UniProtKB/TrEMBL annotation:
SUPFAM superfamilies assigned to the protein according to its UniProt record, in alphabetical order: NAD(P)-binding Rossmann-fold domains (SSF51735)
Coiled coil: none
Pfam families noted in UniProt: NmrA
The protein's name in its UniProt record: Uncharacterized conserved protein YbjT, contains NAD(P)-binding and DUF2867 domains
Cited InterPro entries: Ergot_Alk_Oxidoreductase, NAD(P)-bd_dom_sf, NmrA-like
Domain of life, per lineage: Bacteria
Residues annotated as domain NmrA-like: 2-244
Length: 287
């Protein structure tokens, strides 16, 4: 039995990571910034809940004690680089054998999105920490369609991106399977960059058609500006989101999110969730 730390533990990748690790017989420290029904559910599964702030080093040090390996996931909002530095320092102090870091597929030293640049800078910090780190450069989540579930129920696939822009969506549960494999087998991974995509490339207008066919209803494609998009989602209180979507729109135009990579399926050891399967699994939210 090993002990693992999972940040973002109530999120779409963190929660299934906690669940899979517990199912495999491990101890899991689930780091949360507030207690709610989601953290209660993890506690009921057997996770140790640690309430803290990732920007406070003593909180992270406390959570890291006795941990074999750790998953680092930080939101698009400000503070990512500082949180990573704190996390890396705490991991080094506790002789952690492996970090798995959630990054962006288009992470690069000249990234136009501040959030993506923060991911690239965080990768550099982790690589210099002395703790082996697997950087997961992830494509769009399949959960993208759930952000606008209400609009899809109303018959429109709403996006700030161009109709022909292409990407390779991957379900968060499949990402979690990759995370677990790396955490459990640090000697097989160590320090490396892993491109994480789904098994099928689509355009946004094609995804609208897949939604319509799978749900058996009309779903029309509708493009709005990034500013309009974040306002519809209720995220306009934080300018980070609009800035990121504006940059990602250009990244897609430059085809930085195209191309299927088989690494996720190979590491997970099973077929990945298709767009149709994901939509069917979430029919109750989308139909």
């Amino acid at each position: 039995m090993k002990k693992f730390l999972v940040t973002g533990s109530t999120g779409v990748t963190g929660a299934p990571t906690v669940r899979f690790l517990l199912e495999n017989g491990h101890k899991v420290v689930a780091f949360v910034h507030r207690e709610d029904d989601r953290s209660k559910a993890l506690m009921e599964l057997g996770a140790e809940i640690v309430l803290g702030d990732m920007l406070k080093i003593e909180d992270v040090r406390g959570a890291m004690k006795g941990v074999e390996a750790a998953y680092l996931c930080y939101p698009l909002t400000q503070g990512a680089v500082e949180a990573t530095a704190i996390f890396a320092q705490a991991a080094a102090e506790n002789d952690v054998k492996q970090i798995v870091y959630m990054s962006h597929r288009q992470s690069r030293q000249h990234a136009r999105s501040p959030a993506t640049m923060n991911h690239w800078l965080s990768e550099q910090i982790l690589d210099r920490s002395g703790v082996p780190t697997a950087h997961l450069r992830v494509n769009f989540f399949s959960e993208w369609v759930l952000y606008t579930a209400a609009e899809i129920r109303a018959g429109r696939y709403l996006t700030p991106f161009d109709p022909e822009s292409r990407f390779v969506p991957i379900a968060a549960v499949d990402i979690a399977r990759v995370i677990v494999k790396i955490l459990e087998n640090p000697d097989a991974f160590g320090s490396k960059v892993i491109t994480v995509t789904g098994s099928r490339e689509v355009s946004h207008i094609e995804l609208a058609g897949i939604l319509a066919t799978t749900l058996g209803k009309e779903v029309r494609f509708e493009q709005v500006t990034p500013d309009e998009f974040v306002k519809i989602l209720g995220w306009d209180g934080d300018p980070s989101y609009a800035m990121h979507f504006k940059a990602i729109k250009v990244d897609q135009q430059e085809q930085l999110l195209v191309g299927v990579d088989n690494s996720a399926a190979e590491i997970a050891g099973q077929p990945l969730t298709t767009p149709e399967q994901f939509i069917e699994q979430h029919r109750h939210l989308l139909a």
